[in-house]
Amino acid sequence: MPPISVILITKNAAAHIECALRSVAWADERIVVDCGSDDATVALAHPLATRVETHPWSGYGAQKNHAASLATHDWVLSLDADEAITDGLRDQIAALPLTPETAAFRMPRVTWYLGRWIRTTDWYPDRAVRLYDRRRARWDDRPVHEALLVDGPIADLPGEIEHRPYADVAEHLGRMNHYTTLAATQMQAQGRQARAWHLLVHPPAAFLRNYVARGGVRDGVPGLIVSLLGAVYVLQKYVKLWERQRQAS
């Protein structure tokens, strides 16, 4: 196994943190940076992590950059608290030659939702760059859907990350409300505008893309729900952007 430091940023992740850390027990170093959980996250992390630190929230990208700065090794695997590395992906990482020819590796995520793994819609393969050389990569500062900025080639690994983001639909809806607020803030900062046609066209287009073009129909009722809520997400962020424009005028 090449020397790798795993980083996780957490806030009230007691339901998932043990599973996440056990899935990377093979890693040389496992760092948890918590931003003030009021549940058992920190207590559960201590026996499984090599380092646990509390750090004030500074944004998704900044928090991950701070966690990476604590790592002993230059190769870093960033994992969310509600994710787990599969055995197949672990074996692929173990066989990697971590050389200067590649600056980062991208891998698919599969999401567990309403009793099944969703391998359709925008949710799959949802390839994410998670294993990277911190000397040549850094997380950006976007308020939502932060991305890793990589200076060099990115290679693909077929092994999956398992993602369990929602306990139920109610949690999904609550998270949508939070993230669409952040998305509207980001869009406004970019100078984007919300027009009536955006509200009319973008949500149904998102539904058709997910349910028809990207195969949500094959996942039965869960695929239909994912596709419908994807359209609602798009509607929410444009409505919130429109509201902000109106308040600013």
Q: Can you characterise this structure?
A:
With about 250 residues, the protein is α/β, with parallel strands linked by helices. The protein folds into two domains: about 160 residues, Spore Coat Polysaccharide Biosynthesis Protein SpsA, Chain A (Alpha-Beta Complex); about 80 residues, no CATH class. The protein is about 40% helix and about 20% strand. It contains seven helices and 13 strands. It has a seven-stranded mixed beta sheet. Strands 5-13-7-8 form a four-stranded mixed beta sheet. Strands 10-11 form a two-stranded antiparallel sheet. Helix 5 packs parallel to helix 7 and helix 6 runs antiparallel to helix 7. It is globular, with a radius of gyration of 19 Å. About 35% of the residues are buried.
Beta strand %? 15-25%
Mean pLDDT: 96
The quaternary organization reads as single chain
Runs in which pLDDT lies below 50 for 5 or more consecutive residues are none
Kindly identify the CATH topology of the largest domain: Spore Coat Polysaccharide Biosynthesis Protein SpsA, Chain A
- Count of helical regions: 7
- Kindly provide the radius of gyration, computed on alpha-carbon positions and rounded to a whole number of angstroms: 19 Å
CATH class of the largest domain: Alpha Beta
Tell the overall outline. Answer: globular
CATH architecture classification of the largest domain: Alpha-Beta Complex
Helix content: 25-40%
Q: What is the string of helix and strand elements?
A: EHEHEHEEHEEEEEEEEHHH
The assigned structural class equals alpha/beta
Please, how many domains?
2
Placed side by side, the strands forming the largest sheet appear as 3-2-1-4-9-6-12
Please report the distance between the alpha carbons of the first and last residues. Answer: 57 Å
Largest sheet: 7 strands, mixed
CATH superfamily placement of the largest domain: Spore Coat Polysaccharide Biosynthesis Protein SpsA, Chain A
